[in-house]
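User: Predict the complex.
Assistant: Input components as received:
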Amino acid sequence: MSILIDILLAILGVYLAMQSLLASRLSQSVFLFFAFGLALALAWVRLGAVDVAITEAAIAAGFLGVLFLDALRDFSPRDTEEQQNLTTVQNSLSRKESKSLLLPRLALVLGLGLFLLIALEAVWKIPEGGGLTAAAETLLPESGVEHPVTAVLLNFRAYDTWLEIGVILLGLLAVFAVGGIQIYRKPIAAADDPLMRQVILFFTPVLFLFGAFLLYIGKSGPGGAFQAGVLWGAIGILLHFGGIPVYSWVPRWLGHLLLTLGLVFFLLLGFLFMAAGDNLFEYPPAYAGLLILIVETLAAISIAAALTAIFANLNQMKKEQPNDTAQK
Amino acid sequence: MEIYQIYSLTSAILFVIGLGGVFAARHFIKKIIATIIMGGGVFLCFVSFAQRDALTFADPVPHALVITGIVVAVASAAFALALARRIYQLTGEESFTNDK
Amino acid sequence: MMIKEVIAIILLVVGCFFFLAGTIGVLRFPDLFSRLHALTKADNLGLGFIAAGMAVYIASPLAALKIFFIWLFTLLASSTSCYLIARFQKEQEQSKNRKEQG
């Protein structure tokens, strides 16, 4: 009986994914993508992956959705007349193109159909009994935490997690490289609404507390550095919308320190115990719980800082443009 | 039919939808969304088989990999978005065009 | 034991009814303001009933408190976003009118 929910959820996910790509307006696309992320989060819960569900809802649907929405304002037509001219040009183009595109489109559909059959068959036949559940179960007492996912993330495969924090920083550096470093300069006034500011000021301590709760509970249940980091990052983004751009108040050295804190401390700790004769990122079981909590806290701070900086830099990139041309 | 079978089949469908989107979608943002959907399909496949191999708890290694993967996908999508916006600012193009 | 479950089921069904009504409103109402009205009012009430149903079903004070906070925060967030969407629409309409007049 409960399998009915899973079938409905699967159909909903596929439908939302298709509609999100087929929608005629870009804003529809983005909102359907939001909904797709949330449907996927429900699927994670059904599969017993609550950690993944929180991560998906917070970062893939929430954070990425905000980035897309922010980009929408950039891409939306500046002048309706200009846009109308553009669409008529595009229409005539697409009519001309449509004949020459018929064959490639047919090939694409056929190719995708074939690929789908192969993928379905491959997925159906994945052999049983591969997993590492048993290994994780026997080693869990040595990891210093009670929750298996946290044990894998921060102890057994800490190297992956360290690199992951590095990838977020790399993403920020790539955004800096493309758009220039915008976050430390004085931002052009963000939207300011008295009601919104009050609601955001109310939510700020709540989000902070909830992030800290997720960080602490990661030891024994779903939660941990990433979920907490995204929630703390959400504080920075919300405050921006409330007209309080905290990121621009941070001095440059402090900003850089916050961004790299998690990555550097994580590695230093790894090297410290390597010098004592263990492998890289291998912690002595007696202190592992405490060390993991410290590493997670610092990692969450760095993740929060990086996410806020990515959002703020993308947001300011757009606004900087007309000003720059005016100065020149 | 088991739960993992439903979701693993869905994962294959999602992957192909995303793949089609990467080829067929015109606008940059839609192309980025398509890659994220493709990634979602892959993650769903991982986690559905983690659920199948569960003993007292579901296999935590794929869970950890998927959490890592989601964050990496979002970081790369943010970079792609920065590129797309920069291209739009500089050239006014919203998609890759073949002519000219 | 049975009474608890019956109460929970009744509350959940009532909640689902309000969600259904809100969704029909979103799909059928003609303009943005009445759609927002249907969405935020009916759905918040529906969520309240579903939250109450779950709290009765779980029957643990701590869980009930958590569910109450979830409902409260959703209420705050959805009414604020409703206000923001409505304000945006109104600004759009005003600027449109100004363009037509001027």
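Chain B touches chain A through 76 residues (CB under 8 Å).
Let me know if you want any component modeled separately.
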